[in-house]
UniProtKB/TrEMBL annotation, chain A:
Every NADH:ubiquinone oxidoreductase 30kDa subunit domain range: 27-144
Organism: candidate division WOR-3 bacterium
Taxonomic superkingdom: Bacteria
Protein family membership: Belongs to the complex I 30 kDa subunit family.
Pfam families assigned: Complex1_30kDa
Protein name stated in the entry: NADH-quinone oxidoreductase subunit C
Chain segments annotated as coiled-coil in the UniProt record: none
An example molecular function term from Gene Ontology annotations: NADH dehydrogenase (ubiquinone) activity
Automatic annotation (TrEMBL), chain B:
One protein family per Pfam: NiFeSe_Hases
Entry protein name: NADH:ubiquinone oxidoreductase
Gene3D superfamilies for this protein: Cytochrome-c3 Hydrogenase, chain B
Domain NADH-quinone oxidoreductase subunit D: 123-287, 291-364
Origin species: candidate division WOR-3 bacterium
Residues annotated to bind Mg(2+): 50, 325
Signal peptide: none
Record key words, sorted: Iron, Magnesium, Membrane, Metal-binding, Nickel, Oxidoreductase, Transmembrane, Transmembrane helix, Ubiquinone
UniProtKB/TrEMBL annotation, chain C:
NADH:ubiquinone oxidoreductase-like 20kDa subunit domain: residues covered: 23-133
NCBIfam families for the chain: PRK06411.1 (NF005012)
Key word Nucleotide-binding present: no
The keyword Coiled coil is annotated on this UniProt entry: no
EC number: 1.6.5.11
Gene3D superfamilies for the chain: 3.40.50.12280
Pfam families: Oxidored_q6
Organism: candidate division WOR-3 bacterium
The name this protein goes by in its record: NADH-quinone oxidoreductase subunit NuoB
C-alpha cells in the first residue's frame, strides 16, 4: 500500500477504497468531503489533476476525479455520487484552475451544477444552435440520427 | 504614447487561419502593445466522440478515437486499448508491446518535426518549416510501409497490434532514422545557435513551475517549465521500461525551452526505436479476447503533446457504457491564459503555438470595440515577422 | 469577363483552406502539398490567407453546430465563380461522426461542392489529382 493512501485513510476514515490493481485506486468519498480530499491530494501530496469524468448511472450522477501521482505512477480516482434530483457538487475550479474547463464541460453535457465555480458557462457547444437544456451524455437523451435530419 | 493606447481592446484570433489546422477562437485583451488577458473559446471542433463511443464495439473504438487528432493518431487508440486491457486485466504479447512502442515513437518524431516547422513559420523562418517538413516525410513513408497509411495507422487493437514489423522493414526503418537523426542534428544546431531565433524566443511566454502545477499541464509544456513528469517513465507501459532513454527536463519555461525540449526529445525517440528494434522479440502480435468483464479501466500514454488519458467503463457487454477522453492540449491550452499575459501582441501568436496545441488563429476579423485596432491572424504573423526582422537588424 | 475569370482560375488556382471540426489530418496533408516533396506551387497553386483572394476552397471535416455559421461566412466572402473541393471522407459524407449530436455536415448540404476527394486522409497525390480533375471540368 502506498503512503499517500495510508495518509488518506488516516485523515479521512470514512472513505471506501477499491484497488483495481496496484496502479489504479478507486476511492469512494462522501460528497461533502470532496474539497477537503482533493485539496489534500493536490496540495499536500503534490498530485496532478488528470481529468474528471461525469457518468450518468442508475444510482445518480457519478463524478470521478482522476488524480495522478507522478512519483509513483498511481492514479487516485475519487468517486462522488450525486443524486439526480439534486445534482450539485462543490467546485474545485475556484481554487484549482486546472479543473475549470472540465467542470464547465460536465455542466454543459451532463447538467451537474458546480457550486462556487467562477465562470460556469458552456465550453463546447454552439451559442446559437443549441438548446441549453440538451444534455447529450445523459442516459435519457434521445439518440437520434441527428446528422441526417433534413 | 498617448492615453489612447492605454484603452483595453480586444483582438480576436480565429477561428480560421491561413496556415493551420483546427479552428479555435482566442480573444486577446490588449492594452497598447501588451496582452493583459486571454479568453479562449472552444467548440469549433467538438464532434462528440464521448457520445459516439458507447455506440461502437470495443474493436471499433480505436478507429473512432484515432480520428480525434490526425497528428497524434496513435496516442489515442493506444490509450484506449490500454484502458480496455486494464479493464479486462490482460497483457498483450511482448512483440505487440515493442511494435506499439516503435510506432508511438515514430509518431513523436513526426509530430515534433511538424511543430518545429510551424514554429519556424510563425517567426518568419520559412526555411525551417520547409526543412522540417521535408525530413518528416521520411517518417511518413516508414508509416506507409508498415501500416499502409501515412496517417491514421490503425496500429492498435485490444490485445495487440494489427500490423507486424516484417524483417525487411527493419533496415528501412533504420535508414530513415539515420537520415532523420543527421538532419535533425543539423536543424537543431541551426535553430539553437541562431542568435536571432534565440533573441526572439528566449524569455517569451514564460510559464513558471508553480503555474504549470496549478494548471496541471502535461508533456513538453510541463517539462520545459521544470516539472519532471513523463507517463512513459512514471507509469510504464508497452516496452518503455525495457529500453534505455532519458526524460528531457528544462527549467526556463519560455518558448525557447519548449522548442529545445521537443528537438532533444526527437533524439530520445530515435534511441528508443533503435533499442526496440535491437530487442524485438519473436512471437504473436495479438491475442484472443473473449470477453471484457464489467468494471472500469484507465489507460494513459505520453502523446507528443503530453499525457493522453482514457477512462472506460464496461458493463460486461461488447460496448463501453462510458468512455472519457482527455487530450493533452485540453490542459495545455488552458494554461495559455497565464503564458501570454504581459507579453506583446507580436509574441502572442508564438506563445499560443508554443504549447503545440492543435492550434489555429485567424483570418477574418470582426472589428471589435470601436473597431480601431485591426489585427488579423495575418497581421499577427506580420507583427511577429517584423519583430524578427528588427532583432536581425540589431544583431548585424 | 466570365471567361477571363475562369481562365485566371484554371491557370493558377489560389486556394483557401477551411477546416470545420476536422481531425487535422487532411489539413496537415494539405500543408504537406506545399512542402518540398509535393510542392504544388510549381503548378501555380498557392495557399492564400483570405477567402477574398481565393479561387477555390479546400474544405475538410464534418461541420459542427458552432463552425457552420463561420463556414457559410467564408463561402459568402469568396468571390464567385469559386470551386469547392471536399477533402476527406468526413467532408464528403460525415464518416464515423454521422451519429454525433454536434455534426451538421456534410458540406454539400450547405454549400455547392464541385469535387469530392474521399480518403482518411486522402494521399497528397490524390488531392493533386482531384484538384486537377475539378479544374479540367471547368
Amino acid at each position: 500500500m502506498s503512503s499517500s493512501l495510508q495518509l488518506l485513510r488516516e485523515r479521512f476514515p470514512q472513505i471506501e477504497v477499491m484497488e483495481k490493481n496496484p496502479r489504479r485506486l478507486y476511492i469512494r468519498i462522501p460528497r461533502e468531503q470532496l474539497t477537503a480530499t482533493a485539496r489534500f491530494l493536490h496540495e499536500e501530496r503534490g498530485m496532478r489533476l488528470s481529468i474528471c469524468t461525469g457518468i450518468d448511472t442508475r444510482e445518480g450522477f457519478e463524478v470521478l476525479y482522476h488524480f495522478s501521482e507522478d512519483s509513483t505512477g498511481i492514479i487516485y480516482t475519487l468517486k462522488v455520487l450525486v443524486p439526480k434530483d439534486d445534482p450539485k457538487v462543490e467546485s474545485l475550479g475556484s481554487w484549482f484552475p486546472a479543473a475549470q474547463w472540465i467542470e464547465r464541460e460536465m455542466h454543459e453535457l451532463l447538467g451537474i451544477d458546480f457550486v462556487g465555480h467562477p465562470n460556469l458557462i458552456p465550453l463546447l457547444t454552439s451559442d446559437t444552435d443549441w438548446e441549453p437544456d440538451r444534455r447529450p451524455l445523459r442516459r435519457d437523451y434521445e439518440r437520434r440520427n441527428e446528422a441526417h435530419e433534413r | 504614447m498617448s492615453d489612447e493606447t492605454k484603452v483595453r481592446r480586444i483582438v480576436p484570433i480565429g477561428p480560421y487561419h491561413p496556415l493551420q489546422e483546427e479552428p479555435e477562437f482566442f480573444k486577446l485583451v490588449v492594452e497598447g502593445e501588451t496582452v493583459v488577458d486571454l479568453e479562449i473559446n472552444l467548440g469549433y471542433n467538438h464532434r462528440g466522440h464521448e457520445f459516439i463511443s458507447p455506440e461502437l464495439t470495443y474493436d471499433q473504438v480505436p478507429f473512432l478515437v484515432e480520428r480525434i487528432c490526425g497528428i497524434c493518431s496513435n496516442s489515442h487508440p493506444l490509450a484506449a486499448v490500454l484502458a480496455i486491457e486494464d479493464c479486462a486485466g490482460i497483457k498483450p504479447p511482448p512483440r505487440a508491446n515493442f511494435i506499439r512502442t516503435i510506432i508511438h515513437e515514430l509518431e513523436r518524431i513526426h509530430s515534433h518535426l511538424l511543430w518545429v516547422g510551424l514554429a519556424g513559420h510563425f517567426i518568419g523562418y520559412n526555411t525551417v518549416w520547409m526543412w522540417a517538413w521535408r525530413y518528416r516525410e521520411h517518417i511518413l513513408q516508414v508509416f506507409e510501409m508498415i501500416t499502409g497509411n501515412r496517417n491514421h495507422y490503425a496500429a492498435n487493437k485490444p490485445g495487440g497490434v494489427r500490423w507486424d514489423i516484417k524483417p525487411e522493414h527493419v533496415p528501412e526503418i533504420r535508414a530513415a532514422l539515420d537520415l532523420v537523426e543527421k538532419k535533425t542534428m543539423m536543424l537543431t544546431k541551426a535553430v539553437l545557435d541562431d542568435p536571432v531565433i534565440r533573441a526572439r524566443l528566449e524569455g517569451v511566454g514564460i510559464l513558471t513551475k508553480e503555474q504549470a502545477i496549478a494548471w496541471s499541464v502535461v508533456g513538453p509544456t510541463a517539462r520545459a517549465s521544470g516539472v519532471d513528469i513523463d507517463v512513459r517513465r512514471d507509469d510504464p507501459h508497452c516496452a518503455y521500461d525495457q529500453v534505455p532513454w532519458n526524460v528531457i527536463v528544462l527549467s526556463e519555461g519560455d518558448v525557447f525551452a519548449k522548442a529545445k525540449v521537443r528537438l532533444l526529445e526527437i533524439f530520445e525517440s530515435i534511441k528508443i526505436i533503435r533499442g526496440c528494434l535491437d530487442k524485438l522479440p519473436d512471437g504473436p502480435i495479438d491475442m484472443r479476447i473473449d470477453e471484457i468483464p464489467s468494471g472500469e479501466g484507465i489507460g494513459r500514454t505520453e502523446a507528443p503533446r503530453g499525457e493522453v488519458f482514457h477512462y472506460i467503463r464496461s458493463d460486461g457487454t461488447n460496448r463501453p457504457i462510458r468512455h472519457k477522453i482527455r487530450a493533452p492540449s485540453y490542459m495545455n491550452i488552458a494554461s495559455n491564459v497565464v503564458a501570454v499575459r504581459g507579453g506583446s501582441i507580436a509574441d502572442a501568436a508564438l506563445t499560443l503555438a508554443a504549447v503545440d496545441p492543435c492550434y489555429c488563429c485567424t483570418e477574418r476579423m470582426a472589428a471589435f470595440e470601436d473597431g480601431m485596432l485591426k489585427y488579423t491572424g495575418k497581421d499577427l504573423l506580420r507583427l511577429s515577422w517584423e519583430k524578427t526582422e528588427k532583432i536581425r537588424e540589431r544583431l548585424k | 469577363m466570365k471567361d477571363l475569370r475562369l481562365w485566371g482560375l484554371k491557370k493558377s488556382p489560389w486556394v483557401y483552406h477551411v477546416a470545420a471540426a476536422s481531425c487535422n489530418n487532411c489539413d496537415i496533408e494539405i500543408l504537406e502539398l506545399l512542402t518540398p516533396r509535393y510542392d504544388v506551387e510549381r503548378f501555380g497553386v498557392v495557399l492564400v490567407g483570405s477567402p477574398r483572394h481565393a479561387d477555390a476552397l479546400l474544405v475538410t471535416g464534418v461541420i459542427n453546430r458552432k463552425s457552420l455559421p463561420r463556414v457559410l461566412e467564408v463561402y459568402e466572402q469568396t468571390p464567385k465563380p469559386c470551386l469547392v473541393i471536399a477533402i476527406g471522407t468526413c467532408a464528403c459524407n460525415n464518416h464515423i461522426f454521422r451519429n454525433s449530436y454536434n455534426a451538421v455536415g456534410p458540406y454539400d448540404k450547405h454549400i455547392p461542392v464541385h469535387a469530392y476527394i474521399p480518403g482518411c486522409p486522402p494521399k497528397p497525390e490524390a488531392m493533386i489529382l482531384g484538384i486537377v480533375k475539378a479544374l479540367s471540368k471547368l
